Amino acid sequence: MSVGAAMATTLEIPIFPLGTVLFPGGRLPLRIFEPRYVDMTKACLRDGTPFGVALIRGGYEVGRPAIPYETGCTAHIVEWQVPSPGLFSLVTQGQTRFRLRERRTQDDGLIIGTVELIEPPDPTPLPREQAWLGELLRKLIAELGGEHFPAPQRLDDAAWVGYRFAELLPITPERQQLLLELDQAQAVLAGIERMLADLRSAD
Questions:
Q1: Cβ neighbours of residue 119 under 8 Å, at least 6 residues apart?
Q2: What would the DSSP string read from start to end of 5-45?
Q3: How confident is the model over 120-131, as a mean pLDDT?
Q4: So what CATH class is 5-119?
Q5: At the fourth CATH level, which superfamily is domain 128-202?
Q6: How much of the chain, in percent, has pLDDT values that exceed 90?
């Protein structure tokens, strides 16, 4: 079963290119200070709408608009504070993968994207041959603390387990992006197994 299947729904949302990858269910803290993103945050809080997080393909987080990858994840603000005027401290949660179909840049430098959402399927059980990944993740959660992982914990769901490993493993954002772009839950798990094998062989 696929991690996500394309649906007809499209949205026009602001795109926040970052040097990190956000996965469905994952949490991403952000400090917002550039005026374009401060305005974006205010609009999202006012309207209860998401923005899109996409890994930077070219450029930088600060300054001129960066070029994002086409596959990203919608982010909803779940916690926010204003430590000082013009500064937001956010906790966001990844919800739905998307494909960026079109983008335009406003005068203030904010990228507005037309995105096609990728509908998540019903939870897919971990295949028997990859059940060990669920047990390993269970042990890691016990060691690191459950508060560091999104709730509810779905250790028997292939996509949830794969995405949490993608966040935990010491791999480059580019390799995380490859995992985000996969449409099959078992393909994500297979990618995690290869990356774990690479890390073991590098020790």
A1: 4, 5, 6, 7, 9, 96
A2: EEEEEEEEEEEEEESS---TT-EEEEEE-SHHHHHHHHHHH
A3: 87
A4: mainly beta
A5: BPP1347 like domain (1.10.4060.10)
A6: 79
**Residue holding tokens 């999104």?**
150
Q: How far is CA 46 from CA 8, 39, 135, in A?
A: 26, 11, 41
Distances (CA, A) of 183 to 21, 43, 123: 16, 31, 14
3-state secondary structure of 92: strand
Number of residues written out for the chain: 203
pTM across the whole model: 0.90
Task: Enter the DSSP assignment of 107.
Answer: T
Give the separation between CA 40 and CA 32, rounded to whole angstroms: 10
What is the residue whose two structure tokens read 């990190």?
20
pLDDT tens, 23-36? 999 999 999 999 99
* pLDDT band per the 50, 70, 90 thresholds, residue 8: low
The structural domains of the chain, with segments of one domain joined by +, span: 5-119, 128-202
> What is residue 5's predicted lDDT score, i.e. its pLDDT?
43
Nearest one of 22, 14, 10 to 115, comparing CA atoms: 10
